[in-house]
Amino acid sequence: MIALSGLKIRYIAGTLGQGGAERQLFYSVQALKRSGANVRILSLTRGEFWEDRILALGVPVTWVGESSSKGQRLCRIISELRSERPDFVQSQHFYTNLYAMSAARFIGSREIGAIRMDLTREVKMNGPFFGPLSLGLPRVLAANSSAAIRNAVQTGIPKDRLRLLPNVVDTEKFKPGYSPASDRIRILAVGRLAEEKNYKRFLAVISKLRHLEGKSIAAAIVGGGPLKASLLEYARNLSLYPGVVEFRDPLSEMHPVYHDADIMVSTSDHEGTPNVIMEAMASGLPVVATRVGGIPDLVVHDETGFVCETDTDCLVESILKLIRNPELRSRFGVQARRRMEKFHSTERMPCFLQELYESVA
Prior knowledge:
The chain is α/β, with parallel strands linked by helices.
């Protein structure tokens, strides 16, 4: 059996910005550091949200993105790693898989690639050349959802090259808290304001709920991104903004946001295993979400919330059930919290990582 203590792990990260994959990287290196592993991160960016937090753990972060040339970046990565000869070179993002794979093979280490979303979108986003190579070349790929693994198998990737590395959530930080009394049901959406999140669907849902339930509905969208201006305009056209829907910028500490909500809603067209849904569930919120990516693995239909096809009417009906039944809303929230504690707490990360490295070794 492999012990994490003494293992030498080197991560290749595309960014350390305020995203879900980067939060999971923080949880991973935190678990490895506490377990006595020798861990270091090589990042293509510098000075971003998670860098100082990772450095505070005692984990070195080295910037290897000085050049825009992929070849020069790879040479820099190899130069940093060749004298260390780590046990594993692990990619944290799909688009850094080729860096991790190439460097690991050059220095004689084992590589682990990453699948962070539902795969189809990741391959497409990386182009017709690098997308398929990033999927096909790494000898081992760690995915954060069973849906991504199924999609990979359907594309022809042998199942024995695929590993499940579940996302986790800090259940000590994200937990039920005091929620100020309100005469309105507060519906929350959290995430980057980008096309795949389909916030126009969310706004259409809120508009229908507003017509059905009147002034008892309020909503908040928390996130930044390229579509903010168009979403504000769409909300105005639906007579939702200002007054019904609030647009908020993301915070460095998000747990108060969940305490100020009654129901979490996700209307995405594409997802991996969303951190925001896990945080909401750990905070005791029921969730209504579209059946995409790893969401059905998190949200147990009719137990911790409701899972719908990408259908506005189903989302509206499901939210109405929770609005009109406070006892159901409370029960789902309690069960959501228990599920995160049992299956996705950060306390489980060392076990998940140990299983991953044992299977690769």
